[in-house]
TrEMBL record:
GO terms classed as biological process: fatty acid biosynthetic process
EC number(s) reported in the record: 6.-.-.-
InterPro entries: AccD/PCCB, AcCoA_carboxyl_beta, Acetyl_CoA_COase_Trfase_b_su, ClpP/crotonase-like_dom_sf, COA_CT_C, COA_CT_N
Positions of the CoA carboxyltransferase N-terminal domain: 16-265
PROSITE patterns linked to this entry: COA_CT_CTER (PS50989), COA_CT_NTER (PS50980)
Species in which this protein is naturally found: Scrofimicrobium appendicitidis
Name used for this protein in its record: Acyl-CoA carboxylase subunit beta
Keywords of this entry: Ligase
Domain CoA carboxyltransferase C-terminal: 278-510
Region Disordered: start-end pairs: 1-20
PANTHER family associated with the record: PROPIONYL-COA CARBOXYLASE BETA CHAIN, PROPIONYL-COA CARBOXYLASE BETA CHAIN, MITOCHONDRIAL
Domain of life: Bacteria
GO cellular component labels: acetyl-CoA carboxylase complex
Length: 529
């Protein structure tokens, strides 16, 4: 077939050029821009925005939107400081924008704001996840209020998209000023160990205002936000690691709140039987001996694959994604390795937001319980354990997704209730034999229930400690066991550790048709908690 070209129209760049020349001219501009970007980024140990996009997306899948928008292609072309478009990850479409630090420090002005806002609109219309690759000095100072307003519009659109499509932010350079709230409103933040920073006010401003001298690292480095502040959800060793984690995370998520999470063909493997059997001896019987809950999770899920979220923050609780017979689930579990798995303000917020996310996107929640209670003391009360702990109850009590809970060893007091108990709405609840469930531990309970008796014994000069030991033993035998839970219907069955994987799979199969009560644009948002 011969292709007849329509009549030539002169280009702004070169009125005498043919169409082909004009395309070549644009290609040349793009190549120059990329060379400039490489010269700026590579010495700093960073990839260019385009290199990042090609590593994130499936090969050749990127389709750019408005490649030359925001730049004067006729004269001194620099381009906008953001690249927008869409592509696929493991064959599934995503919308993506990558800030280009080589253009005016990746800052956001009118053109960049317009491009990002348009992309967010496209993502909402197509109902596809949004991934932001951030590397920017924030609002462009020269653009004044226009830049601030564009951020405001992005914030608003991000909130509208919250709970409709998954939103991921990768911090691959600076993210400064109020601009940090753009990723903070998204579902997951991934930071690279070197080069990424997030702070509302930079070291210079801090010094000018308060006199405090602080490094970029200590003020907003990736370790700070992963270990301490809880702002970030993953600490990546490199940009490649950050991009790979984003791809892995997405493989567990549906593209939008109307879709079911992706499910994978599953062939049973012998190793899973071995893993299940190993569970019988993995968890020490004594409830005071620690063990690694992540190991337990790996013994329960398909191929031992568990993608942990916020691994470094509030390590007394573990959250993350895995599959059971090919179906993605969100897992919330106490971690006896850290602080004996007690609940505190940080653990409560970490688990709450994760439960809210899973519920917004129809991902079933598995809760594995081994919790001695809330961490007592003034530090926690002052930090607002009442206000912040309530978020966890709110998250579980409002969740509509299938919820299956297993009490592995112990579950005391309020912590028993908030960790996915039946009364908060879990669909199926199990316990391992010997599970300890009670209002409080034996020592505390005896001190309260037998206060007078113990005081009288003390005044009579009797052996108070022997009496206390006797009372503790009686309380433990009579009250610290699953009997009351079973007869009250709190547990649907007592299962052995090696039966747990199958019990979870059977429960989820039963719950596949559960009404998720979705009757609008979204179930609910995933607001920052
Ligand atoms: C305009 C900016 C800029 C900004 C950086 N640049 N930040 N231009 N507005 N906000 C420009 C620099 O002038 C420079 O231009 C280029 O980007 C690269 O910056 P460098 O400083 O040379 O790079 P580096 O040493 O790597 O330091 C990067 C940086 C630093 C840490 C980001 O530039 C910095 O601290 N910038 C200010 C960050 C900040 O406070 N932003 C807050 C803005 S307020 P040339 O031409 O020399 O290459 C905000 C509020 C949002 O974002 C509103 C929400 C409601």
């Amino acid at each position: 077939m011969t292709l007849t070209l329509p009549p030539r129209t002169p280009s702004a760049a070169d009125p005498d050029s043919s169409r082909e020349d004009y395309v070549n001219h644009l290609d040349e501009l793009a190549q120059q821009a990329e060379a400039r970007a490489a010269a700026r980024q590579h010495p700093a140990g960073k990839l260019t925005a385009r290199e990042r996009l090609s590593q994130l997306l499936d090969p050749m899948s990127f389709q750019e939107i408005g490649q030359f928008a925001g730049g004067n292609v006729g004269k001194d072309f620099l381009g906008a400081a953001v690249i927008t478009g869409h592509g696929t990850i493991n064959g599934r479409r995503v919308a993506v924008y990558a800030q280009d630090f080589s253009v005016r420090g990746g800052t956001l002005g009118r053109a960049e704001g317009d491009k990002i806002l348009h992309l967010l609109d496209v993502a909402l219309e197509m109902k596809i996840p949004i991934i932001a690759l951030l590397d920017s000095g924030g609002a462009r100072i020269q653009d004044g209020v226009v830049a601030l307003t564009q951020y405001g519009r992005i914030f608003r659109k991000t909130c509208q998209a919250s709970g409709v499509v998954p939103q991921l932010s990768l911090i691959l350079g600076p993210c400064a000023g109020g601009a940090v709230y753009s990723p903070a409103l998204t579902d997951f933040i991934i930071m690279t160990r070197d080069n990424s920073h997030m702070f509302v006010t930079g070291p210079d401003v801090v010094k000018a205002v308060t006199g405090e001298v602080v490094s970029f690292e200590d003020l907003g480095g990736a370790e700070l936000h992963n270990f301490q502040s809880g702002v970030a959800h993953y600490l990546a060793d490199s940009e490649a690691d950050a991009l790979e984690y984003a791809r892995a995370l997405l493989s567990y998520l549906p593209s939008n709140c109307e879709e079911r999470p992706p499910s994978y063909a599953y062939e049973p493997v012998a190793q899973e039987l071995v893993n299940s059997a190993a569970l019988d001896s993995l968890v020490p019987a004594s409830s005071r001996q620690p063990y690694d809950m992540v190991e337990v999770i790996r013994h329960l899920v398909d191929h031992g694959e568990f993608v942990e979220v916020q691994e470094m923050f509030a390590r007394n609780i573990v959250v993350g994604f895995a599959c059971l017979e090919g179906t993605p689930v969100g897992i919330v579990a106490n971690q006896p390795m850290f602080d004996a798995g007690t609940l505190d303000v940080d653990a409560s917020e970490k688990a709450s937001r994760f439960v809210r996310f899973c519920d917004a996107f129809g991902i079933p929640i598995i809760t594995l319980v081994d919790v001695p209670g809330y961490r007592p003391g003034t530090e926690q009360e002052q930090a607002g354990i009442i206000r912040r702990g309530a978020k966890m109850i709110f998250a579980y009590a409002n969740a509509q997704v299938p919820m299956v809970t297993v009490v592995l060893r112990k579950a005391y007091g309020g912590a028993y209730i908030v960790m996915g108990s039946k009364s908060l709405g879990a669909d199926m609840n199990f316990a391992w034999p010997g599970a300890e469930v009670a209002v409080m531990g034996a020592d505390g309970a005896v001190s309260i229930m037998h206060r007078r008796e113990l005081k009288a014994a003390e005044e009579a000069g009797e052996d108070v400690e022997a009496l206390r030991a006797q009372l503790v033993q009686r309380y433990t035998e009579e009250s610290v066991n699953p009997n009351l839970c079973v007869s009250e219907g709190e547990f649907d069955a007592i299962i052995t550790p090696s039966q747990t994987r199958q019990a979870l799979i059977d429960s989820l199969a039963l719950l596949t048709t559960k009404d998720l009560q979705y009757d609008g644009k979204k179930r609910h948002d995933n607001g920052p908690l």
